[in-house]
Design brief:
The protein is an alpha+beta fold. Helix content is about 20%, strand content about 35%. The strands form 3 sheets. Strands 2-6-7-3 form a 4-stranded mixed β-sheet. The protein is elongated and about 55 Å long.
Length: about 140
């Protein structure tokens, strides 16, 4: 098993890729397998989020890039900034991990939340996309 214990510079060319869903990318210590079939163990300082594009390396300088896996997401698109702000408020009030893009919100599909947002006059669609939510104002990147 290849042990990945540190972050490589952002411009580093990876030797392999590991594609992981959001829930798994929240863990700083895990066992997995790269897309190329190599067994890996990730052992980073606690609290490190494995963001899409992050490159990890081990003592032998083997480098593995983290990719965000496509997941079932609820997606809201609107040009109405007040509706978008209201949606952010209500989802944030429920501590929902939320990806905020210009005119668009994404969150892990939850039919109860979908109904709540529809009740606010928003249209919710479902798509399979990579999920990279906001880290939060108090998150310490560690790099």
């Amino acid at each position: 098993m290849l042990k990945l214990t540190e972050l490589a510079p952002g411009s580093t060319t990876p030797d392999d890729v590991v594609t992981l869903p959001y829930e798994t990318r929240q863990k700083s210590r895990l066992l997995s397998q790269t897309d190329g079939g190599t067994k890996i163990g990730i052992f980073l300082p606690r609290g490190q989020i494995l963001s899409h594009g992050l490159v990890l390396k081990g003592h032998d300088d083997y480098r593995v890039r983290v990719n965000a896996a496509a997941e079932p997401l609820s997606v809201i698109r609107t040009d109405n900034t007040l509706q978008l702000a209201r949606a952010c408020y209500h989802l944030g009030n429920r501590h929902i991990a939320l990806q905020i893009l210009p005119g668009e919100l994404r969150f892990l599909t939850d039919h109860v939340l979908d109904q709540m947002l529809a009740g606010l006059g928003l249209t919710v669609t479902h798509e399979s996309l990579p999920f990279e939510p906001e880290l939060g104002a108090y998150h310490n990147h560690g790099h």
